[in-house]
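Forum: Protein Structure Q&A
Topic: Joint prediction for protein chains with partners

I've read a bunch of threads here and the consensus seems to be that you should model interacting components together rather than docking separate models afterwards. I'd like to see that in practice. Below is the full input, 408 residues plus whatever partners are listed. Could one of the regulars post the assembled result?
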Amino acid sequence: MNEMAKMIIVLTAICLASAFALTALNNGLEARIAQQEEFYVRGPAVHDIFPDAPNDPVADAFSVEVDGQSWRLYPWIENGECRAVALQAAGAGGYGGDVMVMTGIDFSAGRILGARVAQHGETPGIGTRVADPLYMRIYQGVPVRAGTVIALKSAGGEIEGVSGATRTSAAVANGVDRAVQFVLAHKDEIPGWVREQTGR
Amino acid sequence: MRIVKEFSKGFTTHLPPFRLVLGLCPVLAVTTTVANGIGMGLAATFVLVCSNVLVSLLRKVIPSKVRIACFIVLIATFVVIVEIIMKAFFFPLSQSLGIFIPLIVVNCIILGRAEAFAAKNPVHLAAVDGLGIGLGFTLSLAVLGTVREILGAGTFLGTPLFGESFEPFTLFAKAPGAFIGLGVLLFLLNAVDRFRLRAREESLQRRF
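Posted by a regular:
Agreed with the consensus. Here's the joint model:
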């Protein structure tokens, strides 16, 4: 029994120490990692989706808190009016956790301008084919109206998946759909937020 | 000197992955360029040194029945530390190494050294052992990365070597090229060994 107690105590102590060390490190470096991700991942994805935005959507980006969830919006501002936003949403259901998808939505014209996979943990070579910008062009021009749901054809939607990577494709569609639902729900508020945040 | 011996064995009798044929997965996967190879090697070296030191320090405390679980928790902790630090300070490198940084947890070189060496030896020797094996691993990855980057992309550390007309041998940038490169390097090392052994035998025979 004594030996049993020792095993439990030692292993628990090691796990606790490990958890403390990792939490402290993560808290310390979280802000820096977020800044690096903005620079190396989200920034280039936004520039890809909005190649001819008259403003710099990354420099004008801001975060809003809606229903306890934080969203970062990258606005396309033309003649002082926000016409479109790009935003990142987590697509649930990937093999390696959530697939982070950046979607650009022109809410004045009611269509998707483009989507890019920003981050994922899928198996290299199989799931990663979905991250190919050539495949992601499938989302370009998809109409966004009240009641639009973005889903794969197999789930009753309009989007063609990548064969052999159905689950990853579905996760990406889910990420795009969450962005679309957010924009549809808040499209009247977004120009106001943009004016408030950027002072334009 | 024991310390020198434990350090240098990482480059000679225990050179991973050529002598200890362990940890082949990252060797094959990340050596598409020299920079990736060195980055992966240094990340593994850090984990190896830290885990060896802690395993050695705790070797009298850890009950032998749960030692593997304890080692894995320690190793996984250091791997996550490397992952967080790499994301914060070397973000492009962490993107190109991707899933292979978290996979250092299951790299058998690290658990192998914890079990075979660090759990039985004092701290300073364990640290030196980890450093030697880790740097040997880094060296091997850099050599394989050099071969594959030069043949597969025509560059060294990103600088083009052969001018515009060079057609890269793309096979070497892919997985089969990794196997071929590793096989040829293993062959060369074994051939050199056999040659040296035969030379020594002949000189012994001549003496008697």
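The mean pLDDT of chain A is 86.
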